[in-house]
Amino acid sequence: MTCYYQGCTSKGTTKEHIPPKAFFPEGERDQLLTVRSCPHHNNAKSNDDLYVLAHICMNASPSNRAREVWEAKVVPQLSFNGDKFREMLAAGAKPNSDGVKYPVNKRRFDDFFTALSCGLIYKSQKSPLPTSYRIGHIYHAFTSDADPAVQLLEAAIGAFYSGPPIDSFDFGKPNLQNERIYTAEIFGHAGFGGHITIAHCFFGTFKVTSMLSKF
Ligand SMILES: [Zn+2]
Questions:
Q1: pLDDT higher at 182 or 152
Q2: How far is the CA of 32 from the centre of ligand 1 (A)?
Q3: How many CB atoms lie within 10 A of CB 208?
Q4: In-domain check, residue 146
Q5: Residue 8 lies in a domain
Q6: pTM for this structure?
Q7: Position 5 confidence tier, pLDDT thresholds 50, 70, 90
Q8: In a domain, 3, yes or no
């Protein structure tokens, strides 16, 4: 069996969790999906998981579940290796009107969401995403609503949603506030007939749209 990652022809000799295990407290991992991955795509991805999770939790505040996952999954790592992770997150932070603004490494987010999208598509369509697709991501929490370019882009997303999702996934038990840690909906044509859009949502509030455009 080949690796789940788009365009990779290596053998899938390792097991990769979709979404990553690092996002879920004990007791909520049994429902995660797995795909076969080559060692390269498995290791490349795990480096970004904690980084992305930390930023999502910071941006999803005051979600109770985000705070809970931050405490359980991120805090124990902050002081590891002489505060290395804490220093990396804080590097370049600037005070602003809302408190403190932490800069985000978009490449690391893109790598993470490309891998996650490849995994969801592999599970949903039982086949890796063909190389005729280009993948791009929109991070709604990191964009300004006042930016005309962003408004245009968000209006264009609507054109990618046609009808009900072809697949949807829910991960993490809902708590009293009914927030799930992560949900994803896939829109478009099954069988790689055209563009595909994936609507990701973390803690019911942090939204990312992945646009898989067919050329
Ligand atoms: Zn691979």
A1: 182
A2: 20
A3: 23
A4: yes
A5: no
A6: 0.90
A7: very high
A8: no
